Amino acid sequence: MLFYEAQRSGTLPSDQRVPWRSDSGLSDGADNNIDLAGGYYDGAGYIKYNFPMAFSTTLLSWGVIRYKRTYEALGQLDYVLDTIKWTTDYFIKCHPEPDVFYGQVSDNAADSQYFGRPEDMNYQRRSYKIDFSNSGTDLAAEAAATMASAAIVFRSSNPSYAATLQQHAVELYDFATNAPRRSYKLSIQPAAQAYGGSGKYNDELAWAALWLYKLTRTRSYFNDAKLIVDRRRNGLLNLVTEFSWSDKAAGVQLLMSELSANSKYRSPINWFCLHSQPVRSNLFQTQSQYTNRGLLFINEWGPLRYAANTAFLCVYRFPYELWLKLVTKISYLFITIATEWRALGIKQINYLLGDNRKGQSFVVGFGDQPPTQPLHKGSSCPLPPAECGREFREVNSPNPNVLYGALVGGPNEMDDFSDLRTLEDQSSVSLDGNAGFQAAVAGVIHLKLNNL
């Protein structure tokens, strides 16, 4: 959770554990006369992109819902709850009216001109919103999923707060479904530079509906999701090969398999994990790409995030599928296949932590030969009162401040990795890059603690 603490914006709490960070972005939203202090900076710079922030937080909440006892056993539960709440407190601010949601603060045009500490920012930081006239179906739905999943997390420990989150989730979902359907990048055009995504939004709508159903058990939400999932054209029952901030279809498939008794909803997520295996299945015309040393290689830009997300879903799925096949006495062959999903998840997490060609960790501050030059402005700056400028991006030396817990982008398809912040595809860090990793690690530890 230390990486997320390093990414905090706003007024930091007295128990902040990252010593080189302090308050920043306190005037965010001033251009629209709204308080938007808080939330997280996305990656290297100081833009707050609410679309990937929402997805990241939903993944963290999902991990807590499934692996709460593991977080407790590791002494990390309070930290992950604080991490989730840092987002949801901010999203409450971003949602001042039912049909208004602020989706971004600052933009690449402004942020790229500044290389320094977040505490010293003095440039204009514009805030961008969606509303009924300038809608953003995917963003509103993704935010609804965040608030709904977090409401489940806090339901027992803080019921009044959970009720507030539920109210925002319902309103955001209504906003997403009632306003004109379109991608948020058409309303917040600077988002397209980094997190515009595919422009599709059916996966976000189904994702949000299922999280609201999981929270409320109101059947209409499940029916909304089912209508989207079951469509003959552009439905969500077909094979998908990644799970990411841009494509939640695999997550929808896993939720459907949990929330419905209909066996047809179990096959798509099973296909996802089966296709992700290093050995090609005769069921598919395509095969997942792996590096020679065993990394599932889905995208050359930050491949580790995709491998970690896949690991999370397949490790999550394994105990349920194993139980289902045992109690229904279905073939031993399928039990063996489900066991391979477990092995896939463990293999990918082990690769990230050092079981790879060079024996190096890809997590800053952890393991052997960890990255020392993540592309990250704040940790690249020396401590004040020393000045910080763009020259610190180019210098070939470790960052003065250790960005503990950050998962970097990762190696290329040949398993080669250069620890240089100037190689953005390998050294970049991001909120969504860490979320699936955090949840997958909790899942792997859960398997080991429970001898599964």
From TrEMBL:
Class of the enzyme per the UniProt entry, highest EC level: hydrolase
The Glycoside hydrolase family domain sits at 1-440
Q: Which InterPro entries match?
A: 6-hairpin_glycosidase_sf, 6hp_glycosidase-like_sf, Glyco_hydro_9
Which portions of the sequence form the region Disordered? 1-24
Which GO-annotated molecular functions does the record name? cellulase activity
UniProt catalytic activity: Endohydrolysis of (1->4)-beta-D-glucosidic linkages in cellulose, lichenin and cereal beta-D-glucans
Q: Which SUPFAM superfamilies match?
A: Six-hairpin glycosidases
Report the Pfam families cross-referenced here: Glyco_hydro_9
Keywords, comma-separated and alphabetical: Carbohydrate metabolism, Cellulose degradation, Glycosidase, Hydrolase, Polysaccharide degradation
Q: Which family does the similarity line name?
A: Belongs to the glycosyl hydrolase 9 (cellulase E) family.
Q: By what name is this protein known?
A: cellulase
Organism, scientific name: Ciona savignyi
